[in-house]
Amino acid sequence: MKHIAVTAYAISPFKGSEDGTAWNLTMQLANYYSITLYTRKNNREDLERYFSMHPSSNPIQVYYVDLPFWMRWWKRKSRGALLYFYLWQMATALHIRKNRNDYTLLFNLNFHSDWTASFLWLVGKPWVWGPVGHHPKMKSSLHPEMNWKSFILNELTWFTKKLFWNLDPFHRIARNSASLILAVNSSVARHAHFQQQKTVLFPAVGCHLPNKEKIPIHHTAPLEILSVGRLVPLKGFMLTVEAFSLFINKNPNLEAHLTLVGKGPLENALRNFIRERKLENKITITSDIPFSEMDTIYSKADVFLFPSQEGAGMVIPEALAHGLPIICLNNEGPGELTSEHTAIRVPMSDFNTCTQALAKALEDLASNPDKRKKMAEQASLQAQQQHEWNQKGRYLHQLIESYA
């Protein structure tokens, strides 16, 4: 059996997003290979708690690696996280090279940044990079909440990514030395200058299928609309609320309710936005929902509205798995994770045009329960065939055996 070293900066069995992806892909790799995991010390509590709860299901060996205090005193939570991640990757590769070099293959699993170089090439073994990608530059025309500070930050963030893609010598070494690169969407190879012949489309996001008994019977009234994610501009929650407002104003006699699940810096602005439109009784913002309770949230919904500009979207496979028709933007993130049979994908343009198109999509699904039912069936099927973790694990195994 091949012995693979996996590096995962963030990993947890009890979280979604980056942490959940790393956990699920690591456990999938453990079905086929002997796995040694290298991760940060702040992930120890969650991993040890899980393995104490499931003592017979620990197929991996774990090493916890961090920079010494004198190299990380300046890091405070998210402040300095990207610089620390860059240095951590270098330190972890050097640690593996110095202390143990008997692996068949190395796997740089996350963060999912395609503009931050990996250093596993330092070990001198074949290695896999990914899934990696990036959030595209936000279109300012889609964000009325964007002030001059957020505009400058958006421009600066995109400039920084381009700087690393084009000028970082370590990024060039990494992309040339990797045996296989997994790209989260179709834009990755183009922006990050990855070689097409060893770059494979492999969305980082996935899902577990709910029990059949828990799949809801989608009702006709009231129409329950759901959106889930961190309350930041990238996720498009202003678009969500405005589209819902237009939908309600055009259909005042229709019973409908919108639930936003998440927290973040945009929460106060969203609540003000909702108050201005006098929709407090029709829109609920729910924060601090444990990841383990999200199945219940999804099961109560009829439609998933998610006009995010991000490059992926963990919530899309989760919504599909629960049989929810999707309304999203036709982009390289959620747009590529869905299909014409499972989603109404709205072209990206300006705020007013997009919100009108999103409202029209809501009206279409609200007035056509048969269409919702067909899309719900296709959504469950797509989740099972493309996004379910065991399916992704089998595909990942095939890719490793073919390329590395």
Sheet of most strands: 7 strands, parallel
Number of helices: 14
C-alpha geometry: globular
CATH topology of the largest domain: Rossmann fold
Question: How many domains, in number, for the residues?
Answer: 2
Strands ordered across the widest β-sheet: 3-2-1-4-5-6-7
Précis, in short:
With 404 residues, this protein is α/β, with parallel strands linked by helices. Helix content is 41%, strand content 16%. The protein is built from 14 helices and 13 strands.
List keywords for this structure.
single chain; 404 residues; alpha/beta; Rossmann fold; 2 domains; seven-stranded parallel β-sheet; six-stranded parallel β-sheet; 14 helices; 41% helix
Description:
By secondary structure, the protein is α/β, with parallel strands linked by helices. The strands form two sheets. Strands 3-2-1-4-5-6-7 form a seven-stranded parallel sheet, covered by helices on one side. The protein has a six-stranded parallel sheet with strand order 10-9-8-11-12-13, sandwiched between helices. It has helices spanning 17-29, 44-53, 81-99, 148-167, 169-177, 188-192, 237-250, 267-276, 294-299, 315-321, 334-337, 351-366, 369-387, 389-403, and strands spanning 3-8, 34-39, 60-64, 105-110, 127-132, 180-183, 199-201, 223-228, 256-261, 283-286, 303-306, 326-329, 343-346. Helix 11 links the parallel strand 12 (326-329) and strand 13 (343-346). The chain has 14 helices and 13 strands. The protein has two domains: 3-133 and 168-206 and 388-403, Glycogen Phosphorylase B (Rossmann fold), CATH 3.40.50; 212-386, Rossmann fold (3-Layer(aba) Sandwich), CATH 3.40.50.2000. The protein is globular. The mean pLDDT is 91. The chain starts with a strand and ends with a helix. Helix 1 packs across helix 14 and helix 10 crosses helix 13 (369-387).
